[in-house]
Amino acid sequence: MSQSTLHEAEYYEILNQEDVSIQCHLCPFDCIINQGEKGKCLARKNVDGKLYSLNYGFMDLKIDMIEKQQVFHFFPNSRAQTFSTYNCNLDCDYCSMPEKAHLDPETYTGKKFAPDQAIMFGMASGSKIISFGEAEPFISFEWVRDTAKLAKERGLKVLVRTNGYFHEQPVSEMLEYVDAVTIDIKNVNDEGYEQSCGGGSFEHIKKIVKIVFDSGKLLELHMVIHEDLNNDVEAARKLAEWIKEELSVEVPLHLSRLIPSHRTKNFIPTSKELLESSYAAAKETGIQYVYIDGIPDHDTLNTYCPNCNELLISRTSYATEVRRISLQGNCNKCQTKINVVLS
Ligand code: SF4
Asked: Whose CA is nearest to atom 2 of ligand 1?
């Protein structure tokens, strides 16, 4: 890859002018990167004392229903143009796309998209929503930020799905250009992050979740439930209690079934019983919107009014129907305001 095709990264400092060592400050790994080397995510490289984003413009495109992004309160039953980026800073045992998450960008042979090309595709599809996800959009920070900014200028809505393990400043910068964020919580303690994802910190991610919540953007949280990850009923309860105390009972929480993959290929998928017990524990805390992802046509895929229990949005594996809710987001039966973005 020639230097002229590289895109200079942001959020780094030069540590030593003589040996041109650099420290990246995009995420809390704060990698020290020597001349010619890359950081832990493989996507940021020190070339002669400058840090470059190697994966600027790398992505796969698809159009999908927004529910496929596992977001339920942001334009339900809409199509979203999804930009699926490369590389990740975490290394989770159950990663569903390890080849993509840990690709060496210098071996990438796919097409690169400039932000305006990506937006052109998005607008041509007729979709009014742009979604960034898979593997970890913040590792493509500069490209995602540039593209999201352009999307906003063109009147599109922007969703980002992230693991949340990034420094406050880049997250705050990105929030200027997004309308909704979903964050995948990997565990409710730092040891769990270390064991299952090779690093990361629940304590740090809580701060990021709070920043997103305080920004007023729509926020949804996810956690994979499985005994062998120590993500069980008590973990679901603990997370829900934290949501209630530090955020709001209106923040949706998705409890997802583990689909065996990568280093969990030999695991048994999470049982329906464990998911239902975890769901019950989360609901007991008083949070209003809890969903079980991964069990087709389960009742908990639906959104009910937290006041009168009216069925507001029904979901099956194949279809979503927005039923008894106004465009302003009020329950048609009792007028309770629902935390949902419809227009
Ligand atoms: S973004 Fe990559 S290079 Fe930068 S600190 Fe995180 S893992 Fe290291």
From this structure: 41
Is the overall model pTM greater than 0.90, yes or no? yes
Q: Is the CB of 26 under 6 A from ligand 1?
A: yes
| Domain ranges, ordered by start, for the chain | 3-53, 59-322
**Alpha carbon of 295 to ligand 1 centroid (Å):** 35
CATH number of 59-322: 3.20.20.70
Which ligand 1 atom minimizes the distance to the CA of 166?
A: 6
* AA identity, residue 162: T
30 Cβ below 6 A of ligand 1: yes
Q: By C-alpha distance, which of 107, 165, 108, 116 is closest to 136?
A: 165
Q: 88 with 136: CB under 8 angstroms?
A: yes
Quote the CA–CA distance of 305 and 313 in Å, as a whole number: 9
Answer for the pair 73, 220: CB distance below 8 angstroms, yes or no. yes
Q: Is the CB of 160 under 6 A from ligand 1?
A: no
Atom 4, ligand 1: which residue's CA is nearest? Answer: 24
pLDDT tens for the chain, residues 1 to 343: 555 568 999 999 999 888 999 999 999 999 999 999 999 999 999 999 999 999 999 999 999 999 988 899 999 999 999 999 999 999 999 999 999 999 999 999 988 999 999 999 878 888 999 999 989 999 999 999 999 999 999 999 999 999 999 999 999 999 999 999 999 999 999 999 999 999 999 999 999 999 999 999 999 999 999 999 889 999 999 999 999 999 999 999 999 999 999 999 999 999 999 999 999 999 999 999 999 999 999 999 999 999 999 999 999 988 999 999 999 999 999 999 999 999 8
